[in-house]
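Reply to dn_fold:

You asked what the input looked like. This is it:
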Amino acid sequence: MDAPADEFTIEEHRRDRLVVLRCRGDLDLASADELAGRLRELSEELQAVLLDLDELGFMDSSGLRVVLQAAETSREGGWQFAMTPGSEAVQRLLESAGVADRLPIERAP
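and this is what came back:
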């Protein structure tokens, strides 16, 4: 049985040193800690991380905080972090917060 469309899930794929985290559902107060925890674990392994947000239905300020924190932590910790442009909802949030041009954005492989 499939998860409800708004239920947050993380699908992980590894390619050499790159870890792609494909997020689906809603990244909000209820799910932000799950993503933050996984990013923290990966940063300890000094991996390159691509956060794929293209299939998120919704992201609030809690999710934005996790993304901004990951970008900052990667600069300080010497691991690579990038994210996809995200769904339209994500793009609107990034633009309204004024951070879209300050984040490392790449297309998903």
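The beta strands are 9-15, 18-27, 48-59, 81-83.
Hope that clears it up.
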